[in-house]
Amino acid sequence: MSMMLAGKVALITGGGTGIGEAAAVALAAAGVSVAITGRRQERLDGVVAAISAAGGVAVAIRSDASVEGEAFDAVEQTLRAFGKLDIVVNSAGVNEGGGIQSLDLEGWRKVIDINLWGTIYTCKAAVPHLQAAGGGDIINISSTAGRRAAGVFASYATSKHGVNGFTESIRQELGGDNIRVSVVEPGATETEIASSVTDPQWAAMMQQHVSKQGAMQAADIAEAIIFILSLPRRANVSQILIRPTIDTAPM
């Protein structure tokens, strides 16, 4: 079924690690040409090298999705590299610990700028090109934190609730242009998200959560992305909530 994707072009933010990396690898294996963005050039280059070694096609674009100009430029670089754009996966994300009293405003801004504004910027830049091509797909990576508040990670929950609302809004807006819009909400998934948390105690709590018994792997989420993209155009999977089978300590 995934071979139906061969020949398409995808832009994946946060493609140097975690879910973004897994999505890039899975899409490339399905015949998609992928452009991956992120802030760490060495991580991006490593993913591109692995995809190329496996026979896939990928380019690395160093870009901070939370910076409007860089997000727009990443879309333009993708078009210059491949000539078109069919799929956008917004996977760039960070976390911080604390709430309204214990996390400073700089921390709140960092999380919301990357998780929410980065998603908005990339979609804003990409949509005209998807429309010009006659349609496409946007998949935004959210979290179970986008459904329920997590007081100990309040900025993250706020940003992901925003991603959920934004995704549903543009889904309704863009369906008539043959643009499918989906949100994927993973539970505990083993990634490097804890490394973005500056306070060591909060970071340790997050690391325990994503590495607990039964935690999902990033490749599991990539499989959900492939499923969404492989369905007939008439079917828009607007929302996937995916949790570990063994959920011993949900957050």
UniProtKB/TrEMBL annotation:
Residues 8-191 form the Ketoreductase domain. It holds the Pfam family adh_short. It comes from the Bacteria. SUPFAM superfamilies: NAD(P)-binding Rossmann-fold domains (SSF51735). Keywords: Oxidoreductase. Belongs to the short-chain dehydrogenases/reductases (SDR) family. This is Short-chain dehydrogenase. It comes from Blastomonas fulva.
